[in-house]
Fold each of these.
Amino acid sequence: MESLIHYTWRHRLFPLAPLATTEGLPVEVIDPGMENRNDGPDFFNAKVKIGGMLWVGNVEIHTTASDWYAHGHDTDKRYDSVVLHVAATVDRAVMRTDGTPIPQMELQVPEHIVKNYRELQAADHYPPCYRIIPDLSNLVVHSWMSSLLYERLDMRATQITARYDAHDKNWDDALFCTIARNFGFGTNGDAFEEWSRRIDFRAVDKHADNLLQVEAIFFGQAGLLDEATVPAYYHDALHTDTYFQTLKCEYTFLAHKFGMRPMEATMWRLLGMRPANFPHVRLAQLAQLYHERRISVSKLLAATDKAAIMELLRIETTPYWDTHYTFASTPSAPIKKRVTDNAVTLLLINSIAPFYYSYGLRKDAERYCEQAIALLEQLKAENNYIIRGWIDCGLLVKNAADSQALIQLKKQYCDRRDCLRCRIGYEYLKKVYGVEEK
């Protein structure tokens, strides 16, 4: 209930009757203030006229006035700056720490907002606000999706910066780790993140010219060279698998030399995955990528267009993997295990564009942030159930910038039922029930 009172106050969806304090003084809301999502009063720097006198200060909101005491505000000096206490029910007077009373106003949430909010919260289809989509103006859609895209890129930038800091402020390492995570393509993303933390890239650099040794480190640190991780019925085949035995021997030597400790192989998931996405194949591709030094910050910044970047990521594995998806498995019909164009596109969306943006923020170089947006606008929109849901509602999804914005909307708002912070949710309330902004 309190969140709805916040919403009603923030958007000034007040009843038509004049507002007044519990003492009968008229209240005019000039500015509801800036919402505070941290500790302290709910709204900062509000401007309200009480009894004809202008007050500038903070506003606190509760379901009942007695919550002021339940939350300890009467002994917290941060709340001495409150000039108006708003509650659905005023059941007692409230005081500052010095004992002076604070004006109070009862504010009821309009019935149609409550009804519509409950409808959104109870909806069992996605998106719950589908009815309003055809009526949204281009301005509303464009401004909200633009905000969502930047919000998503900011989140990704925070993750990339954390990798940069964790790897001794090395941008090349942060870039490779970012790409590695997205080689998990969702299912094994966390496993690849853990794996990348286990890689000592300076140790790998000493052996980067030897692909077999790079593979040994990559597979070994992934825990996939431990025979205990392979089904028992493959053990005989492992003993005669020259490639596996050579990798294991190399890793044993290199692990001792550099003090490496592998991750738990149980993190990797294979069940329900297409064989081409098995971690063994993806690790072999990453090893080739590292060995050929395809990816570096200098090469990425020097790439002039989308095609040049895509070419950097088009990689294939060594011949062993042409007939295998895991170690010692029954050889399959030969097929080159290339990173497909669809996979490369996803890497550009989820790795390269966020990296440009993160690098631009850290270097205070706006051109790289703009390059991130431009790259997403050149790429086709992702095709998944989230995007199809919005398209089915009538929303135009033109490119990857749009699809990334809608994924952000789904994960950070719809999944959390946080309709009150969503611009489309606001339009839903306003349009369906005819409530206009003041």
Amino acid sequence: MLQMCREKQVQLSRQYQQNTLAHAIIIQGIEGSGQDALAKWLIELLICQNPLSITHPNGGEAVSEACGQCKSCLLKKTDNYPDHLLLNTDNKTLGVDDIRRGNAFFEKTAQLGTVKTILIPQAQTMTVAAANALLKTLEEPTPNSYIVLITEDLDSLLPTIVSRCALYVIRPIIGDALLAQLNVSNNGYSQGSNSSMVSEQVNAYVNLSQLPELTDKAIYQEFQDFSENYLDYLTQGKSENKLLSQIVDSKHSLRWLEKITCNLLREYYLNNITGKSSMMANKQISAQVLNQIYQAIITSNKLIKSYLQANRQFVGEQLLMTINDIVRPSI
């Protein structure tokens, strides 16, 4: 994954060597783009006692690396390094008490090295109170302390947080490389009853947000099942319980709803132009209906993103009720 982040490694290495590295860093990228690997590399470099300078086989500027052999590196490998804190949570949100634990961690003197580090791997799950608690540390950093935040969704972070951090956006493979990966995925996965349509939908609209289902077989299969359940519900009113369960349990579900509905709209208009009959037209589902469904999905997605503690079950139930009322209005 670090091959995707080579440019960022060079940039951060230069700042590390020049002692100009920012106190707080945000690494943003969609799942699978390498943001976790880049954060791991940076944390290990910061705590290493004998960092190395490595030149890439293809040439170019050297990159700093942790030696992997010093006491700090060995302790980090076993998760026993005392001057690093992973701020993670088993809950859906990262609360103010978690951030206060990080603030207290920075106030103490380093036990082994001279640098203290905190990693927040799901920064977008911070509550507003937690984000405000973090602001104090960002505004008044302690010496030789570094905070690395990872997020898939930059818009979910408070602007005051983003403005006080150095931002590094990781962009994964694109163009021919991504399409080649897509073709491998499509050829390699088992085929279901609606698999050809799913395949057409994936090929119809490829963007970087789709990387998880394009590069992970398990997620692709989940998307395939989700698509079939959504189409069953949309066209026949079936699979409601399965679809609701997936909306609640999968973090990709609302994005998938947007994607599939958008592709159905494209198919509808393209088939009208070419004179072909689309599945939606056959089911007497018009473009206007699809547009209304799309807007309902967007509204639900905004609600989930705006309120981290929003009840996903309730939002999902309301969304499916809205979709049903749009497609099958009561007389």
